[in-house]
Design goal:
The chain is mostly helical. The chain has one domain (about 5-315). The protein is about 75% helix and about 0% strand. It is built from 13 helices and no strands. The protein has helices spanning about 5-25, 30-40, 40-70, 75-90, 100-110, 115-140, 150-170, 180-185, 195-205, 210-240, 245-260, 270-280, 285-315. Helix 10 crosses helix 13 (about 285-315). It starts with a helix and ends in a 7-residue tail after the last helix. The model has no long low-confidence stretch (mean pLDDT about 80).
């Protein structure tokens, strides 16, 4: 068995273990969860579902701007179908071929987008998304939402944020920090040095395209705001009484926690992180758990939509693309 298969099996096991842990923690709360399900405000739940779709669909505008920086103007409908199929790959398939790889392949194969520029746009999109999450967590800090957390949790989060931010700064300015000199001194890094250099060149290709970077960052903030509003409406549907500014912390916290590549589509990580954050703001365990499962359901619903798009694309357009 090769390493990729072993890694995928481990990811499946981690997701199952974490979901089982969450269910076990709520073994005495099933009656409360059932009551909460029956009393859900469906209108707010519908609003949340529509906002989830809007947020995922809006990813194409951020992606499109980064492609425009390299001179490619791909139609938004084509990017939409590719993004949704990528969402399907990321969330439902335990394969080594992730959604980002599919998006890169789709544009290269069907639209002739240069592979390096293609990859740089997708990688930069991921980086901007992460930076936006960090910015939101800092905003949440200044909004006072950290006051609901324990002191050790706040210290740990602030240290993690500073470390992540420092990582991005070093990533963009390695020569300033003499990282290249350090790498040259480490022999076992000789093989990957060319790849690191290529990766750095991909990132710095946006250094002189600041308006595209800034525009994509603003679009990323908009996407996150839509997701935050969806979270807020889920909270309203459950009658939890949490404020919008609390969601400004909860969403990026959950996204950062679930981005670790040790579970399938972040499943298990996302739900436990959501429960931890919601309980920190005073939500009951049963409500927090139901909230996390609603988020999971909406995530999977959109993944299934991506799967449907994939089937239609292959049935009617084969390998040429949806639009």
């Amino acid at each position: 068995m090769d390493k990729k298969k072993i890694f995928n099996i481990v990811r499946i096991f981690v997701s199952i273990a974490l979901m089982s842990f969450l269910i076990y923690r709520n073994r005495g709360n099933f009656a409360e969860i059932l009551v909460a399900v029956k009393s859900l405000d469906i209108i707010f739940l519908v609003y949340a579902a529509l906002l989830f779709m809007l947020a995922i669909s809006s990813i194409v505008f951020r992606w499109g701007v980064l492609l425009q920086a390299h001179g490619y103007n791909i139609s938004r409908p084509f990017l939409w179908q590719s993004a949704y199929i990528g969402w399907f790959y990321n969330m439902l398939l335990p394969a080594s071929v992730g959604g980002d790889f599919y998006r890169v392949y789709d544009l290269y194969e069907n639209k002739g987008v240069d592979m390096d520029k293609n990859i740089s746009a997708v990688v930069m999109e991921r980086i901007i998304g992460s930076l936006t999450g960090i910015v939101l967590l800092f905003i949440a800090y200044f909004l006072g939402t950290f006051s609901y957390l324990t002191r050790n949790t706040v210290i740990g989060l602030l240290i993690a944020l500073v470390v992540i931010l420092a990582f991005f700064i070093v990533l963009f300015f390695p020569r300033f920090f003499r990282i290249d000199a350090v790498i040259r001194k480490i022999r076992f890094l000789d093989r990957i040095r060319p790849k690191l250099k290529d990766f750095h060149n991909m990132l710095t290709s946006y250094r002189y395209k600041k308006k595209y970077f800034f525009a994509s960052f603003l679009l990323s903030l908009y996407i996150q705001a839509v997701f935050i509003t969806a979270y807020y409406f889920i909270n309203r549907s459950l009658g939890m009484g949490l404020t919008y500014r609390m969601m400004v912390f909860i969403l990026p916290f959950v996204q950062v926690a679930s981005s670790a590549p040790i579970a399938i589509g972040g499943m298990g990580l996302r739900e436990n992180a959501a429960v931890f954050a919601l309980e920190s703001f005073g939500a009951s365990r049963s409500d927090a758990t139901l909230f996390s499962f609603i988020v999971l359901a909406l995530t999977l619903l959109n993944a299934l939509l991506g799967g449907l798009v994939y089937i239609l694309k292959n049935l009617f357009y084969k390998s040429r693309g949806f639009i």
